[in-house]
Amino acid sequence: MKCIGIAVTDPQDWTARALYEAVTRAGGSPFVFRLHDVATRMLGETELVAGDVNLKSLDAVIVRDVGGSGSGSGGAEDMSYRFDVLCNLEDQGVEIVNPPLAIQTAANKHLSSYLFKKRGLPTPDTILTADFGTAVDVIKEWGRAVIKPIFGFKGLDIHCVKDDNNSRTLLKKQLDRRGVVYMQQYIPNPGRDIRVFVVDHQVSGAIYRYAPPGSWINNLSQGGEPGCCPLTPEIEELACGAAGAIGAVYAGVDLIEGEEGLTILEVNGTPSGRGIFEACKVDVTVAIVRYVLGRGNG
Ligand SMILES: Nc1ncnc2c1ncn2[C@@H]1O[C@H](COP(=O)(O)OP(=O)(O)O)[C@@H](O)[C@H]1O
Ligand SMILES: [Mg+2]
């Protein structure tokens, strides 16, 4: 029986539980652990252990969640350690899904935008600068811009700015705090975006995410409402292209319907499967587990 590790932050989270059940139903043996709890023993040969399990004995690890650097963790060092654990395990021959490099690339909006542009994939025009004057000129030229943290998530600390005093104040604050600002052309849209789930070059399903009244941010964690989204060849092609650019085996790809067609906002390397299950009864964890159990000896 194949033993599949499931790396979680919260074992009770919907996706963590669904992965556990999917591994069990597929005849595998799940081992749930928190990356935070992994100890590294560099005595003779390096061993990575969670409880009394040497993680090298696992056939593969599915990463549900690496966890943030916020409350309940020790900040940047803990975060960096959790990634190192994944990289070291991969180096010891354990297949990690998603690969740690893909998780890191997806988490970095600057690098992601670079890779989308490099592959000629449609994505909004984006500028990073540390210079206030340049940022103001860009806003003037575009009319409206979206400012995002490079390592942001869940629609947090995202701002839509235009050429006025409030926006300048906000921009100054962001530059003081971050040193550099990531700005993207605002894409007028029908009040919703599309979250597409890709597993192993195939689309499992997609949902619309409708922003709550008075908001332009569609994330479910910001009050967005999910609805089933019919698949089209364009959605499938863009979502698979975006996941491929990031190197993700499975991904939640955010697309938005602009005036000139669909465009890619970002790829999530550790997406929740809850919204699409509740809206359309598609359980993406089944496809992830099928992929992992179907790989070579892993
Ligand atoms: N350029 C944009 N134009 C219009 N809306 C945007 C743009 N960028 C982001 N949004 C809105 O903000 C949400 C969050 O942006 P996203 O880039 O996916 O960051 P996060 O990692 O926080 O989810 C998107 O789902 C979308 O609703
Ligand atoms: Mg997003």
What does this structure look like?
By secondary structure, this protein is α+β, with helices and mostly antiparallel strands. Helices cover 34% and strands 29% of the residues. It is built from nine helices and 16 strands. It has a five-stranded antiparallel β-sheet with strand order 14-13-12-15-16, sandwiched between helices. A four-stranded parallel β-sheet has the order 2-1-6-7, sandwiched between helices. Strand 1, helix 1 (14-25) and strand 2 (29-34) form a beta-alpha-beta unit. The longest helix has 16 residues, at 76-91. It is globular, with a radius of gyration of 20 Å. The model has no long low-confidence stretch (mean pLDDT 96). The chain binds adenosine-5'-diphosphate and magnesium ion. Adenosine-5'-diphosphate binds next to strand 9, strand 15 and strand 16.
Distance between the termini: 11 Å
* Estimated radius of gyration: 20 Å
Which range best describes the helical content: under 10%, 10-25%, 25-40%, 40-55%, 55-70% or over 70%?
25-40%
Going across the biggest sheet, name each strand in turn: 14-13-12-15-16
CATH topology of the largest domain: D-amino Acid Aminotransferase, Chain A, domain 1
- List cofactors, ions and other ligands: adenosine-5'-diphosphate, magnesium ion
Characterize the overall form: globular
**Overall mean pLDDT:** 96
CATH arch. level architecture of the largest domain: 2-Layer Sandwich
CATH superfamily grouping of the largest domain: ATP-grasp fold, B domain
Which spans have pLDDT < 50 for at least 5 consecutive residues? none
